[in-house]
Fold each of these.
Amino acid sequence: MGTRYRGSKEEMRALNAFIKLVRAADSVSGRVEAYLAPLKLTVSQFGVLETLFHVGPLYQKELGQKILKSSGNITMVVDNLEKSGFVQRIRDEQDRRRYTVHLTAKGRRIIQFFFPRHVSRIVEEMSVLTKAEMDELGRLCRKVGLGRTQNAAK
């Protein structure tokens, strides 16, 4: 269902496109996130494990930037992962105010086992699109994600 707002054609087109974007993202995310339920991890927690697995240890602030979480939120996410034994914080020797977040052996086992299954689920979800459509979707999402000011600079 599109917008019920009755404005200009430009407004209605933008609102309808936005509604479709949000609904599609929510729908796909919901199906993929449901697959994470057996792990008893939030999407943010899974994102931290996946990032550390592929990028390596990071300062907590950098980790928050990578998964698009605020400093307060990433602290809570890392706290909970640390309590579960999936990550550990190691104090920086040069700057004792900073901590590097590392995967533990337990965290590495979980993400190594589960990530290929997660990728398969995403591939399955995206299989409704052709390769060209996936490329175009990626291009369009990037364009919208960068916003007007970033796109004007190009």
Amino acid sequence: MPLLDLTKITIGLSKLWAGYLRDWDRTLRSANHPENTRYNYLLAAAQLGRYLAEYSPDPDADDAAEDPCEVTKAHIEYFQAWMIDTRSASTALNKHKGLQQYFKWLRDDEEAIDHSPMDRVKQPTTQKKLIPIIRDDDTKKVLDTCKGKTFVQLRDEAIIRLYYNTGARLSEVGNLALADADMDTDSVHYHGKGNKDRRVRFGPKTARAISRYLRARAKHKGADLPDLWLAERGVRSLTPNGIKIMLKRRGLAAGLDGVHAHRWRHNFAHEWKRAGGDTGDLMLLMGWTSEDMPRHYGASAAAERAQETQLRMGIGEHV
């Protein structure tokens, strides 16, 4: 089932708002934006439209709720503050970025407005949270919950080892097709953000886990489906959201809270840097184009690496 359903996204919006969003989606599709990006952009604009109709304290918001061309800087600021209060600053920041693109499109492509109301709206500031890495002994505890020969045990071990071994995003492993796994070269073809594809190798333990799963998959219902991961029951695939739920459940069974795919992504970056790996090579493996990303993903473990270096150098211990 596709993520993006315009009918659902535009529920509660005026005809003008809904019409503009449909036109914008056509522009985004023609520019080959990924479905997830389109969904986030359109959702941000739709949420602003519904906010103006239902929650805005501004007495002039009624006009803006009917026509997005009537939206002002004040409307946006009220909306951002509401998002921070009801969701979080990081969510408000994501909406800000989506709205920047929406009003830029209204101004430049549609020529429906002369100036974007976003021009002088400041981005919400967010507190950078350090995501703790998941250590080998904790990963072993999670993998121990998968011991056995049932279809689900074999599937879950293969999935967890792939995250652990390659540091991939939740969606990249979750959206793998059967054809993306090459057991001759022990590699997978990931379809990353912004249509950036890359091929990544995996190690012997991961290869063994995937091979065992593939043998079980061949006998499972839905074996003819193109998706790599299959659900336990029925002829259907296991979605990224299903994997997210599975990882949380496996973590709790292992006595661990907060187990999710991105922790292994942080762990991969940490171990790479700890071993003296090249930052450029890490960017290629992780599918990053900005040099800010290695710093962000290494932040949670940088202090630990610094302490290890301090002990190794022995400063202040020579006399």
Amino acid sequence: MALHNELTRRLGIAHPIIQAPMAGGTTTPELVAAVSNAGALGSIGAGYMPPDAITDAITKTRALTDRHFAVNLFIPQPFETNTDRIEQANAQLDGFRRELAIERPAPPAQYAQPFDAQFEAIANAGVAVFSFTFGQLDAARIERLQAAGTAVIGTATTPAEARALAADGVDMIVAQGAEAGGHRGTFLAEFEQSLIGTMALVPQIVDAVAVPVIASGGIMDGRGLAAAIALGAAGVQMGSAFVTCNESGAKPAHQRALLTCAGRATTVTRVFSGKPARGLNNRFIEDMTPLASTLPDYPVHNAWTKDIRAAAAQAGNDEFMSLWAGQAAGLARATGAAALVASLMDETARCVGRMNQTDA
């Protein structure tokens, strides 16, 4: 089934599907290239990468595909390094470290990668698509990218955020519904007031802005893509569906958790990183939740839990891992990225066909 519109033309893709730019190692060059080679848009999640690693990832991806792909960054937000909060959190985290037989690490040299240098690495590489989340990119940088032929995509969790991004001049907007896995992109209000479901959010943002809208959150198959198009979206962005692909860099325990999560609840929590994010519930979340209001800011807390998450992944213990997942993760399937894209389009065609059927 062909679904061609302004989004597919502008991004140079055959199918209105974007693989979400999941940072932290999930979006390998192999996954990104496989998605793009299948006619959708692969995305490098570069938020945690130093500039040279970003350049390397772009180079490796280009060696695997001649199609367009995106690179994504996190817009930096002010944060405080509160030593009292760090010590209070570590007093609890040390208990998990003892169970995992690891020692508390030394304080990190830096809590976040230098955004200016990250951005320069991407701008100098001349990528086809740049996307961002957690805030607004300044108009000068947007114009610089667009002048070089790069499409710019922002992320909104409310109509107000979408209007702000459109006023900044972005080419497209991801409407991140409350069902979405991973970190919330909210930047204009508290996240509790910005948890709007995808089905309610998409048509509001479509009506609020004149640029193409990309639906995200709880979309795992062709039924979700068909529903998003019906709501006025020009395409979809999908994360959890690609976590379990063969080419994904997600840890095996994370993939297993998604593939066997039927009946397992997801929750939005700050306890892994200091920033609200949706993932499968586990013991780490339950034990740390009483401290949630006193945890260090993001990305400080994220840096201090990294050793625990890594050791748990190494041990295959998903009770101490950040198992980012959307609310429809129970529909995850183990497959290749190209096969997934083909299945999504076939499922969409069948769904639209059913909607077009009428009783004689």
Amino acid sequence: MTKGRDKKLISARNRKLLQRYHQLTEVERLRFDDTIKKLSEEEFFISESVVIDIIRKYYKKEDYYSEI
């Protein structure tokens, strides 16, 4: 049995985070810095830098973006 975080759970979290990012910035028109803070502190409980890294890495990838 391998140790560490489950890759399926991380992938699911990232998809949800990107969906919420899209919702907050594009639909609700929340500012970027307010969006990052909300995702970090109120919804996913991870650091702002991790939220930004996930957005940078996955937001424009076709497989994630097509689900939004």
